[in-house]
Amino acid sequence: MEQWQSVQKKYPARLLAIENPEAARLLQYLLESSGYRVVCDPAELPGADFLLVPPGGAPKRAEGLEYMLLENSGRMTESSSCPFRYHAVEYETALPVLPGAQRVSYSVHSPKADVFARNIRSGGYGVVFELESGGIVGRVTLGEEREILPALVAALAAIRCGIPFARVTDALNEIPLLSRNLG
């Protein structure tokens, strides 16, 4: 009798084109700490779950690649012809969204954004804020206030990729600890 084996369907890798380098670094940590394989070079794509590149580095309509999320400051790039599912923008901007993409947003000013930072407080321990998405709130501590916007971009992308909100806040809270241990 043959041993039973689980058959897992291999889903295509998901492309994330993130302009902000700090947001990309945080997102890579969020995804890898959630058990995903992330690569930053299209040549390493086989076997990867995510391809994380700057917008100009996105391959054009590659087979076996799901164009998940584009984050940029509004400058349309060559990758703008790719069929991204989501286009992440800061809520307060009136940037055009790519045709066919759903606008998703982040903000430190408006609770209407998909991901929102509120109750921001600075102190000797760094900066603490409440991250809110879809009515769920979690507390996050980062080293400096300038890290909030990249953290919001990373959180938005991770949540849109299916990472649970609790895992996102846990991973963001690990960042200052990692920085202190490496520094």
Task: Summarize the model shown.
The protein has helices spanning 21-33, 148-160, 165-182, and strands at 13-18, 38-39, 50-53, 65-71, 86-90, 102-107, 115-123, 126-133, 136-142. By secondary structure, the chain is an alpha/beta fold. Strands 2-3-1-4-5-6-7-8-9 form a 9-stranded mixed β-sheet.
Q: What's the arrangement of secondary structure elements?
A:
Blueprint: E1 13-18, H1 21-33, E2 38-39, E3 50-53, E4 65-71, E5 86-90, E6 102-107, E7 115-123, E8 126-133, E9 136-142, H2 148-160, H3 165-182
Parallel strand pairs: 1-3, 1-4, 2-3, 4-5, 5-6, 6-7
Antiparallel strand pairs: 7-8, 8-9
Task: Explain what the structure shows.
The chain has 183 residues and is α/β, with parallel strands linked by helices. 24% of the residues lie in helices and 30% in strands. It contains three helices and nine strands. Strand 7 (115-123) and strand 8 (126-133) form a beta hairpin. The longest helix has 18 residues, at 165-182.
Number of helices: 3
Q: Give the strand tally.
A: 9
Q: What is the structural class?
A: alpha/beta
What Rg do the Cα atoms give?
Answer: 17 Å
Mean pLDDT: 86
Order of helices and strands: EHEEEEEEEEHH
Give me the side-by-side strand order of the main sheet: 2-3-1-4-5-6-7-8-9
The rounded distance between the terminal residues' Cα atoms is 56 Å
Strand content: 25-35%
What portion of residues is helical? Answer: 10-25%
Form type: globular
Q: How would you sum up the major sheet?
A: 9 strands, mixed
Unreliable sequence segments: 5-9
What keywords describe this structure?
single chain; 183 residues; alpha/beta; 9-stranded mixed sheet; globular
